[in-house]
Amino acid sequence: MRLGCVLAAFTPLPAAEFVAVAREVEQRGYHRAWIGEVSGYDAVSVMALIASATERLHVGSAVVPVQTRTPVVLGVTAASLNHFAPGRVALGLGLSSPTIVGDWHGLRFAPALQQMREAVEIIRRVAGGERVTFEGTFYRVKNFRMTAPPPAEPVKIVLAALGPEMLELAGEIADGVILNWIPPETVPESIQHLEAGARRAGRTLAGFEIASFIRTCVTDDAAAAREALARDITGYAIVDAYASFFRSSGFGAEVDALDAAWRAGDRAGAVKQVSPRVLDGLGVVGDEAFCGKRIAEFARAGLTEPVILPFAPAGAGGDPRPALLRTLRAFS
Length: 332
Hints:
two-stranded antiparallel ribbon; alpha/beta; about 50% helix; globular
């Protein structure tokens, strides 16, 4: 089993301290550090920083939206990163949200699989050094060719996926998938959709990466951590795509109750609708032995890379770093 980790909670640190964390997770045997991008640091810059400061640690974006950079830019970016850290880079792509794409960037948002399909094709061709002319529904490229040499190894592209259609697309056209907020019990169902997509492309999932973010807190105060996890889940459950996904994972009653409380303006009441079984399914909270066993269950369910996303409740002094590091260090 290979382990990944998410370093998002550490990105506000000064560069030297952040690099120290990246080097520590490399020394502790983590396979990959995943870097997200919403409204904080740019994922590509952080990936370049980590890659240049480490020797073996792989880096991946989880995820950058295909809507906020052109596929040509993403192709050149992926090729550049693969030159800087050969064989250690995964470009994680996703379809973003109306808020990020429409409100923040002023661009048209259309959650269409076709946009992802077109973007991946262009990115691969650009990063491979081809002269690209493309006429699609979402993108148009005329006679572009990257002047830098293509990297020795092909760009590795992984897709963020929740529902069946995106999972099947990932199985068809990508090198891997990034799952999120998924209990181990439903991982096999997701893999079935990946296999269906792979069959459509005439291939298997041999060598295909199946990673999943797992909110994890190794702690002696499980109650406080579970309360923080419940608030986090609530923030996602009020988003339609995640609400639908949580329902399909067997948490429909809780999502409906949460949604009703939220719409009534009862924010605290909404958080209370996150039941113990939801917390147990979507997060890992407890002592080191318990968390280790639970992460192993995710691996047995079919993940090739469980990804530790450390979190910590707000503690005395307001510095979460010791708690976050405790969680990361528990999985050396």
